[in-house]
C-alpha cells in the first residue's frame, strides 16, 4: 500500500533520497534548497541511511566531491539552487562528459543579480547545454517521482549521464501538499544496485578518469556523449512505464492537458502549469478550446514528439520563466520554434511570454491574458508581438 | 595496481568504439609511449664503476633506471629516458657518463 | 622499520615513464617516491589538479598511473579526492569493497596555494582520511610561468616580469604549510627530494598511514621556470634546505618537529644564484634585494625554531 503523506517539495525530495540510500551526498546550503541537506543530515545522524554526508565548503566542492564519489564507484547526490548551481557550472560539464550519473535536486531560483532568493528558471535554463538530463516537476508528487526515476534513467547503460530534477523554489519546495510515497522496499527494488563497469575503487582493474583529451579524441568523446542524450528519450519512457506499473502514476516526455480538441495551447514548465490547468478549466466552462503542454523532459529535448503534438494548434504561447537576453525570446521558446521549423511545421502562430522573473507572482489572471491573446491570434491570424513580457509593470 | 597487459586506444578509433567519458582502463599504459627521442644528451651507465648505491634510481623523473629482482639497478630504459642528466649529477662514483645523443 | 634505500627500491613502481613532463622535472620524482611509500598490497586512488603533472601524466589515451587516478579540474583536487574517500567509506560500510585503499590528492602551487585553497581547506577541515600533496614549483608553470602566491619575492615570472622599474614579484611567498598546520589536522609536513629520499619517503609513509587528513608541501624545482642547469636539480634541492629557504619539518598533532637543522646555514644567495629567475637581483646596486630575501628567510626560520621550542 502506498503511503499517503503531507510534505513540502524539499522534504519529499529528501525522503526520496533516504529511500535511495546513496553512497555519498555532498551539499552546501542555499535557499531554497537548504532543507534537503538539512533533512538528509538528520537521516545520517539517526543512522537510517548508510550514506556519507559531506558537508562541503561550497557548491563547487559539492559537485567536485560528487564527481569523485561517482567515479569511485558510488552513487552521489546533491541539491542546490541558483548561484549554487552557478558555482557548480564548470564541474557540471565535467560530470556529464566523464559520464557520471550523479543525481541533483535543483530547486529553481533566480540567478543573481540582482540577489533574489525567489523562483524562476534562470538557474537550470543556463545549465541546459551542460550535458545533464533535465526533468521538471509541477508539484511535490512529481518532484518525488522524478527523483525516484532519476537513477534508473541516468545509470542506464545506453545513457550514463547525470540527471537534474527541477522544481520551483518556495512554490513547491516549501508548500506542503498531499502526496503518495512508495514503500521503502519497493523503491529499493525499483532503483536497484549501482554496478558501474569501471570505477576507481576497483583495485583489480584500476582506471584513470579525466584526461587531457586533445583534438584527436575529444570530438569522438563528445559525439558519444551526444548519442547518450539521444538514447535517453527512449530510456526515460521505458523507466516511466515501469514506474507507472509500480505506482499507477503515468509520466511521459510532456503532459498534455485538454489538448484533444484545443485550438490554442500554452507551453509551461513546473508549477505554473498547475495555475494554467485551473485557468483552462474556467475557459473550458465558457466553451473556449484551450489546452496545455507541460514539458517534463527538457533535456533531451523531445523534438519529434513535441512538434507533432503542437502541429495541430492554431496558436501557441510558450511561457519562459527565464530570459535569454538574446533580444529574441526565452530558452523554451527558441527550442520549440527551432524544432517546429526543423520539422517543417509552420502553421501554428507561436508567441513567447517571459513571466514570473525573480519570483513575481503568477496569478490566474496573468494566465488568462495569455490564453486571451492566443485565442485572439487564432481568431484573427494576426500576431501583434512575438516576444512579450507578462506581469511586469509597464 | 594493474597487472593486466598494456593496451591503448588507437588514434583512428571511431566514436562508437572510444572509451566512454575518456576513462582509460589500462593503468600504466603510458609505458607504451616512448619519450626516448626527446634526448639530446644520453646517460651511459658504466657498470664497472657502479657500486649499486642506488642513489640514482629515485631521482629519475621518467622511471628509466629500473631495479631488477635482486634490487640492483640495470641499464637505462632508453625508450623513456629523456636525457635530463639528474642521475649523472647525483652519482658519487662517476659511474654515469653523459654524452651527446647520436642522431 | 628504518629507511633503507635498497629495500624500498624493491617496492613496486606505481608511476611509469612515458609521461610528457619536461626532462629533469622535479615533480615526477616526488610522485614516484610518495607512491613508493604505500604498502605493496594497498590500492591507491590519486587525484591531481589541472597542471603540468596532470596534463603530462594522463594525456588520452596514455596514463602513467598504475593505480587509479582522477583529474577533475584546477581548483578541486581536494574536494574530488574527498568525494572518492567518502564513497569508499560508504561502500565499505555496505560491504561492497575489500582490502585497503588510500587516497592522495596532488596539486601544484597554483592549484593549491591559490585557486584550490578553498577546496583543500574544506577537505582537510572535514578530516577525510586522505593526503593532500602540494608539489610547489613556485609559479603557474603549466600555463607558462606566471606568478603564484608561492612565487618567492623578486622572482622573474611572465606576470611578474623583472622590468626596468619593477624588479620581479613584489610580495614574499605565502606560507601554506603554516596555514595547513593551523587547520590542526593530525599530520602536516614540509619536505623535499633530497639525498637518499629518506625525508620524503618517511613523511609520505606517515602522511598516508595517519588516520585522517594529512598535508605535505614538497618543493619541486622546475628547470624551465627557475632557469637553472637541468642536471643540477638535486643540488638546488639541497641548497633550498641548507639555506633554510625550505626547512624540513613536521607538525604531528600540533607538535612541531624540525627534521634538519643545517650546521652552517648557508646564505640565501647560494640558493638564488644558480637560478636565472633571480639574475636581475645579482646586478650591481641590487644587493638590498638579496638582503631583503635573506631577512625574510631568517625571520621565518626563527619563527619556526620558536614553534618547535628550539629558540
Strand order of the largest sheet of chain A: 3-2-4-5-7-6-13
Uncertain ranges of chain A = none
Low-confidence stretches of chain B: none
> What coarse outline of chain B follows from CA principal-axis ratios?
elongated
H/E topology pattern of chain B: EEEHE
Bin the helical content of chain B: under 10%
**Strand line-up across the major sheet of chain B:** 1-4
Per CATH, what is the topology of the largest domain in chain B?
A: Alpha-Beta Plaits
Distance between the termini of chain A: 52 Å
Fill in the CATH topology of the largest domain in chain A. Answer: Rossmann fold
Q: What do these coordinates show?
A:
The complex is a heterotrimer of chains A (394), B (103) and C (311). Chain A has helices at 9-20, 35-45, 59-72, 82-97, 122-126, 140-154, 184-191, 218-247, 272-285, 303-310, 331-342, 364-380, and strands at 3-8, 24-26, 52-54, 76-80, 103-108, 133-136, 163-168, 176-181, 208-209, 254-257, 264-267, 290-295, 297-299, 315-320, 349-355, 387-390. With 394 residues, chain A is α/β, with parallel strands linked by helices. Chain A has two domains: 3-247, Thiamin diphosphate (ThDP)-binding fold, Pyr/PP domains (Rossmann fold, 3-Layer(aba) Sandwich), CATH 3.40.50; 254-390, Rossmann fold (3-Layer(aba) Sandwich). With 103 residues, chain B is mostly beta strands. Chain B has one helix at 86-90; strands spanning 41-45, 65-67, 73-76, 96-100. In chain B, the strands form two sheets. Chain B has a two-stranded antiparallel sheet with strand order 1-4. Chain B has a two-stranded antiparallel ribbon with strand order 2-3. The longest helix of chain B is centred in the C-terminal third of the chain and has 5 residues, at 86-90. In chain B, 40% of the residues are buried. The model of chain B has no long low-confidence stretch (mean pLDDT 95). By secondary structure, chain C is α/β, with parallel strands linked by helices. Chain C has one domain (5-307): Rossmann fold. Chain C is built from twelve helices and ten strands. An eight-stranded mixed β-sheet of chain C has the order 4-1-5-6-8-7-9-10, with helices on both faces. In chain C, helix 8 (198-209) links the parallel strand 7 (187-192) and strand 8 (214-219). The mean pLDDT of chain C is 97. Chains in contact: A-B, A-C, B-C. At the B-C interface, helix 1 of B face helix 1, helix 2, strand 3 and helix 10 of C.
Amino acid at each position: 500500500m502506498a503511503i499517503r503523506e503531507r510534505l513540502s517539495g524539499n522534504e519529499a525530495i529528501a525522503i526520496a533520497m533516504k529511500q535511495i540510500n546513496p553512497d555519498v551526498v555532498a551539499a552546501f546550503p542555499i535557499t531554497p534548497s537548504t532543507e534537503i541537506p538539512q533533512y538528509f543530515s538528520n537521516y545520517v545522524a539517526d543512522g537510517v541511511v548508510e550514506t556519507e554526508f559531506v558537508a562541503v565548503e561550497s557548491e563547487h566542492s559539492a559537485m567536485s566531491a560528487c564527481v569523485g564519489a561517482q567515479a569511485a564507484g558510488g552513487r552521489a547526490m546533491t541539491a542546490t539552487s541558483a548561484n549554487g548551481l552557478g558555482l557548480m557550472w564548470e564541474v557540471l560539464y565535467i560530470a556529464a562528459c566523464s559520464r557520471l550519473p550523479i543525481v541533483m535536486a535543483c530547486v529553481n531560483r533566480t540567478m543573481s543579480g540582482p540577489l533574489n532568493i525567489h523562483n524562476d528558471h534562470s538557474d537550470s535554463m543556463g545549465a541546459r547545454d551542460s550535458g545533464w538530463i533535465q526533468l521538471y516537476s509541477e508539484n511535490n508528487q512529481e518532484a518525488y517521482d522524478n527523483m525516484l526515476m532519476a537513477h534508473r534513467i541516468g545509470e542506464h547503460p545506453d545513457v550514463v549521464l547525470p540527471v537534474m530534477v527541477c522544481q520551483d523554489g518556495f512554490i513547491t519546495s516549501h508548500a506542503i501538499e498531499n502526496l503518495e510515497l512508495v514503500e521503502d522496499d519497493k523503491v529499493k527494488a525499483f532503483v536497484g544496485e549501482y554496478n558501474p563497469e569501471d570505477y576507481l575503487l576497483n583495485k583489480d582493474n584500476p582506471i584513470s578518469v579525466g584526461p587531457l583529451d586533445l583534438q584527436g579524441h575529444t570530438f569522438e568523446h563528445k559525439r558519444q556523449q551526444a548519442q547518450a542524450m539521444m538514447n535517453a528519450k527512449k530510456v526515460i519512457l521505458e523507466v516511466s512505464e515501469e514506474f507507472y506499473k509500480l505506482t499507477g502514476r503515468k509520466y511521459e516526455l510532456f503532459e498534455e492537458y485538454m489538448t484533444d480538441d484545443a485550438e490554442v495551447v500554452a507551453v509551461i514548465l513546473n508549477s505554473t502549469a498547475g495555475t494554467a490547468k485551473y485557468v483552462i478549466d474556467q475557459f473550458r466552462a465558457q466553451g473556449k478550446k484551450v489546452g496545455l503542454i507541460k514539458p517534463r523532459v527538457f533535456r533531451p529535448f523531445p523534438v519529434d514528439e513535441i512538434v507533432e503534438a503542437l502541429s495541430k494548434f492554431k496558436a501557441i504561447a510558450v511561457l519562459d520563466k527565464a530570459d535569454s537576453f538574446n533580444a529574441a525570446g526565452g530558452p523554451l521558446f527558441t527550442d520549440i520554434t527551432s524544432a517546429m521549423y526543423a520539422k517543417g511545421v509552420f502553421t501554428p502562430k507561436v508567441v513567447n511570454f517571459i513571466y514570473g522573473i525573480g519570483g513575481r507572482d503568477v496569478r490566474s489572471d496573468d494566465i488568462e491574458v495569455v490564453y486571451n491573446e492566443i485565442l485572439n491570434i487564432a481568431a484573427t491570424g494576426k500576431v501583434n508581438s512575438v516576444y512579450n513580457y507578462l506581469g511586469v509593470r509597464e | 595496481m594493474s597487472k593486466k597487459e598494456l593496451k591503448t586506444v588507437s588514434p583512428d578509433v571511431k566514436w562508437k568504439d572510444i572509451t566512454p567519458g575518456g576513462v582509460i582502463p589500462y593503468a600504466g599504459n603510458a609505458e607504451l609511449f616512448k619519450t626516448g627521442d626527446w634526448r639530446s644528451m644520453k646517460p651511459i651507465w658504466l657498470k664497472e664503476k657502479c657500486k649499486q648505491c642506488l642513489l640514482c634510481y629515485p631521482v629519475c623523473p621518467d622511471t628509466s633506471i629500473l631495479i631488477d629482482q635482486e634490487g640492483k639497478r640495470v641499464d637505462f630504459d632508453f625508450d623513456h629516458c629523456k636525457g635530463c642528466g639528474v642521475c649523472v649529477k647525483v652519482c658519487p662514483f662517476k659511474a654515469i657518463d653523459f654524452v651527446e645523443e647520436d642522431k | 622499520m628504518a629507511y633503507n634505500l635498497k629495500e624500498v627500491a624493491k617496492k613496486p613502481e606505481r608511476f611509469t615513464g612515458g609521461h610528457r613532463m619536461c626532462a629533469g622535472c622535479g615533480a615526477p620524482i616526488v610522485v614516484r617516491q610518495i607512491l613508493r611509500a604505500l604498502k605493496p598490497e594497498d590500492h591507491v586512488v590519486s587525484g591531481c589538479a589541472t597542471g603540468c603533472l596532470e596534463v603530462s601524466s594522463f594525456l588520452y589515451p596514455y596514463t602513467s598511473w598504475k593505480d587509479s587516478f582522477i583529474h577533475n579540474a584546477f581548483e578541486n583536487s581536494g574536494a574530488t579526492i574527498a568525494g572518492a574517500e567518502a564513497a569508499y567509506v560508504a561502500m565499505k560500510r555496505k560491504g561492497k569493497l575489500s582490502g585497503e585503499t588510500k587516497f592522495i590528492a596532488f596539486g601544484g602551487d597554483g592549484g593549491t596555494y591559490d585557486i584550490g585553497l578553498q577546496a583543500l581547506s574544506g577537505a582537510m577541515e572535514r578530516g577525510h582520511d586522505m593526503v593532500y600533496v602540494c608539489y610547489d614549483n613556485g609559479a603557474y608553470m603549466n600555463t607558462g610561468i606566471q606568478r603564484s602566491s608561492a612565487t618567492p619575492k623578486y622572482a622573474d615570472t611572465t606576470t611578474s616580469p623583472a622590468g626596468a622599474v619593477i624588479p620581479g614579484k613584489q610580495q614574499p611567498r605565502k606560507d601554506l604549510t603554516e596555514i595547513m598546520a593551523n587547520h590542526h589536522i593530525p599530520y602536516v609536513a614540509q619536505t623535499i627530494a633530497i639525498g637518499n629520499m629518506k625525508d620524503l619517503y618517511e613523511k609520505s609513509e606517515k602522511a598516508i598511514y595517519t588516520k585522517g587528513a594529512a598535508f605535505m608541501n614538497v618543493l619541486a624545482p622546475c628547470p624551465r621556470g627557475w632557469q637553472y642547469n637541468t642536471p643540477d636539480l638535486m643540488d638546488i634541492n639541497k641548497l633550498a634546505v641548507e639555506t633554510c629557504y625550505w626547512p624540513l619539518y613536521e607538525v604531528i598533532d600540533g607538535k612541531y618537529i624540525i627534521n634538519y637543522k643545517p650546521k652552517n646555514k648557508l646564505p640565501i644567495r647560494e640558493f638564488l644564484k644558480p637560478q636565472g629567475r633571480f639574475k636581475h637581483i645579482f646586478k650591481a646596486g641590487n644587493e638590498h634585494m638579496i638582503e631583503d630575501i635573506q631577512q625574510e628567510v631568517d625571520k621565518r626560520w626563527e619563527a619556526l625554531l620558536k614553534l618547535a621550542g628550539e629558540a
